[in-house]
Task: structure prediction
Amino acid sequence: MSEAMELADLYSAIEKSARVLGVPYAHDKVRAVLTAYEDAVPHSPIGFRMGTGQRYSKDVDWRFSVPAGGPSPYATAVEKGLIEETDHPISRLFSEVAERCRIAFFGVDFGAATGLKKLYLTFPPEDMEPLSALLDLPSIPTSVAENHGLFARHGMGGRQMPMFSIDYRHRTVNLYFTQLSPETRAPENIRSIHAAMGHPEPSERLLALAEDAFSFYATLSWDSPRVERTAFSVMAKEPADLPVPMEPGIATFLADMRSKSADDRFLYYVAQSAGGDEVYKVQSYYRFEPWLSPVLQVDGEDGQAG
Result:
């Protein structure tokens, strides 16, 4: 299939995802993102994610990777009008992290309804970063340093950060941690993390999911010292394996998308606690590339968390 036909199919899939989930489809915004990174999209894994709760019900997110070594994805976003450059430190942070750390590849996250949302910096799986490497960056939120000790005390203080993302719409950052030990994922440790953050007691469902998690991430901002949200990522091979019933429309869409991708083997289920509320996000792949497995810290043979 030619790249033009593949791109047309991708536009069709994005539009369909919006229609099935009942969210607006902003073709001009989607086209602006895909055109800005047109050299990367044809060769990239492409994922999509949908979620429950008011925060996630108005959009469906799509994402792709951008190779390191080329133009800065942030500079491209500013040049193409996808991000407005301001005096806020968020406008400088991407460049600071890229200059400080060794980068495996970048990532772009956009919504079918809203356009570009986040940029990711992904570190090599054999040389992941410790959170401490970012603490003295001039533009990093002070909340990151203020919570560094909390993460370290609860099993996330080593070289186990596979990526870092910046949300330009909400002016937040996400810290991702992998290689979680059984002790880190144990219910008593999860309860302790929530208590230390001032979050409500986690539900039994969240505790059960956390014990099977391969990844944890936390959302922080420049406006508050507290951790705004946390999430645990759990892997499943099929939608039926997920511990929470899935809406029929989402299940149908997932089955249709995955049937078109011969090398798509992964489905993600994410439980997130946000100020006491729990929301659930499902991520799968429209196109999967085998080289992504080590980055996700999964075993390429059986798709289980490593």
Q: What stands out?
A: DSSP finds ten helices and ten strands in the chain. Confidence is low (pLDDT under 50) at residues 299-306.
